[in-house]
């Protein structure tokens, strides 16, 4: 099988798989608690990838089980007062939009749509004009259903100048395109896509000093301690009346009971990415994306969904304009590619209902993909249109 679905789930390297099996053996030998790995290097590496050193007074990074869990912990705990306005674009990831709708209803927040252009690229003038009314901006650097890279450096600059916190979803961008100049308040990411880690790990990066901007964020579950108290009598009273105190910064969001082997594997993946050189990785992936659009655009009438030179390796293909049943066409193309040993993805409209007019095919080659893989896929797509005629 040739894997061209990095945006869905990449295939971890032998080194990553070995780190996980080694960890499980170690747990067998010394016990799970004693085997717990030191994840400080992974935390420092993730902070470095978003352009920061470790904050002096907090870990800066929390590990959870997925990007969705990290976003849920962060936004679900954010104590925005009723009447607050959260800015999102129409292409925001479906589960984030669902979460925000739910929170808006429960807490009296409002969602405001940040305008975008025809490629769903955020309109910076539009954002600038509405920032005065916003209390929070949530943005995916790259969406799951479109390979367009959002202008996050400019978004970050505008948000900081206006004093509006910005949450950046980097699930599709970290390990894929540069993230370092965004200067966001918090970043939400996932292991198994462009960073090449295993399934079952997500993370939250909070580079700022603990309890500054995020002072008001209190997780629904996770890291708390009791208020300091030496007196047993008032300690008993406090159990029912005093609020537990959240741990400093990102630590409050981390889940402690988890498949630790996956975190150990992810640590190796992140450190290998740093060792390989993020700049070289970004350049290679941008080149693969351009090559894929060049080879696949027009094959069998499928059309690339991004500008040809968009610097990402997340390539979407829209069904030919006259396709009677786009959903069936996308599903059939994906299945025929799989029969030809090419793993690609189909993205349903439900992934971004306000942005996608039809389902699309998604081709997202990993570093090791070749021109031959892409030409083989073009032949699969072209054969489909012959069969129809
Ligand atoms: C995959 C993805 C997520 C969610 O990550 P999970 O680890 O699958 O929960 C969020 N946002 C975007 C843009 C994604 O592509």
Describe the structure.
It holds the Pfam family Aminotran_5. Keywords: Lyase, Pyridoxal phosphate. This protein has 389 residues and is an alpha/beta fold. It has 2 domains: 14-276, Type I PLP-dependent aspartate aminotransferase-like (Major domain) (Aspartate Aminotransferase, domain 2, 3-Layer(aba) Sandwich); 278-382, Aspartate Aminotransferase, domain 1 (Alpha-Beta Complex). The chain contains 12 helices and 15 strands. The protein has helices at residues 14-30, 32-35, 40-49, 67-76, 94-107, 124-130, 152-162, 232-241, 260-276, 278-296, 326-339, 371-388; strands spanning 2-3, 61-64, 85-88, 110-113, 136-140, 166-169, 186-190, 202-205, 224-225, 245-246, 303-304, 315-318, 342-343, 345-347, 360-363. The strands form 4 sheets. A 7-stranded mixed β-sheet has the order 2-8-7-6-5-3-4, with helices on both faces. Strand 5, helix 7 (152-162) and strand 6 form a beta-alpha-beta unit. Helix 3 (40-49) crosses helix 9, helix 4 (67-76) packs parallel to helix 5 and helix 10 (278-296) runs parallel beside helix 12. The chain is globular. The structure holds pyridoxal-5'-phosphate (PLP). Pyridoxal-5'-phosphate binds next to helix 4.
